[in-house]
Amino acid sequence: MNKRRALLLACAALTLHGCIWAPGQHMSATDFSRQGSIDAARYQLVPITPKLLAMDKASNPLATLPDELRSYQPEPYRIGIGDSLYITVWDHPELTSPAGSQQLPSANGRVVRADGTLFYPYIGVLKASGKTVEELRTEISHRLAKYVQDPQVDMSVISYGAQRITMRGAFVKTDPLPVTVTPVSLAQAIGTAQVNTDQADLSGLVLSRDGHDYHLDLDALTRNHQLADIWLKPGDQIFLPYGDRKEVYVVGEVQRPAAFPFKTSDMSLTQALGKAGGLNETTSKGNAVYVIRGVEDMEKSPATIYQLDAKSPAAFAMASQFSVHPGDVVFVGPAGVTRWNRFLSQLLPLSGIVTNAASAKNDLTN
């Protein structure tokens, strides 16, 4: 967020205010084309209707699990650099426990070296990294057969090396998770890392894999019980952003105009108005509830102004299904003519919050 965005929000809301608040009228599509003070090509007025709600619900890509993530199945574990292997050759303790049977298994482990190889008696140096446990066990059995009659070889990984799943962002624990022979789902990884629910943006999870970023709605996937359907692979990176810069702004004729933190993707218009204490019954105009969206990019594409006719009881049912987005300005107009400075006194301090800088706030309020 920056000062420029804050000023754009202010200007757009003021322009909207100037178009709406002539005595006895509210903005309509016809008014839109008549106003000389507004460029209709840069704004789009959209009534909030059941049809609009159905279209929005069907077009939320973050709540949809990508096919490539849904279809991925964990492969057998492949040995990595730094892994320690415990190799048992039955009836041959000198090969199984060269450090002595009284020692811990870790003392008798075979560590995969930085070049991906390990040394084993009689066999010498052999490539281990990139192979499954079964593949390496079979190779050792085959090569030992030259020196040991019918060798019975068993193998297990007793400690894991460099293969990791990275956890970053708004987690309580951000320690890398080791990749083991037991597959790990996204749900298990997040459960281990523990989400910082006070600070996390639950709608902005990013899973980076093989050079591609998958943007996921953690809150929606959790509610739909889909997290367990995503299996992780070595090298995956999981980032959960902080939500301190994502807010919805509620201004105008409400009880407590302010900026409210936005942590999930399903904050409804009703919830946003509720956080502001609801409409001011004395001064608000029921058919003048607007959601201004896309102001920061209006130089490139038209901003969208959604209108709710809150005089109708059915409107509150629609408001509870209309999702607000980060950066939206919810504006409730007054019942009568309002002076410019009254609206400025509400919007400009709020724009100072948007800048997240005390100096910028002072510039805007002064």
UniProtKB/TrEMBL annotation:
Keyword Isomerase listed: no
Highest taxon listed in the record's lineage: Bacteria
Signal sequence annotation: 1-22
Membrane topology: Multi-pass membrane protein
GO CC annotation: cell outer membrane; pore complex
NAD among keywords: no
Subcellular location: Cell outer membrane
Annotated ranges, domain Polysaccharide export protein N-terminal: 73-157
GO MF annotation, one: polysaccharide transmembrane transporter activity
BP GO terms, sorted: monoatomic ion transport
Annotated SLBB domain residues: 163-239, 246-332
Pfam families: Poly_export, SLBB_2
Keywords: Cell outer membrane, Ion transport, Lipoprotein, Membrane, Palmitate, Polysaccharide transport, Porin, Signal, Sugar transport, Transmembrane, Transmembrane beta strand, Transport
Similarity-based family: Belongs to the BexD/CtrA/VexA family.
Protein name (database record): Polysaccharide export outer membrane protein
Lineage, opening ranks: Bacteria, Pseudomonadati, Pseudomonadota, Gammaproteobacteria, Lysobacterales
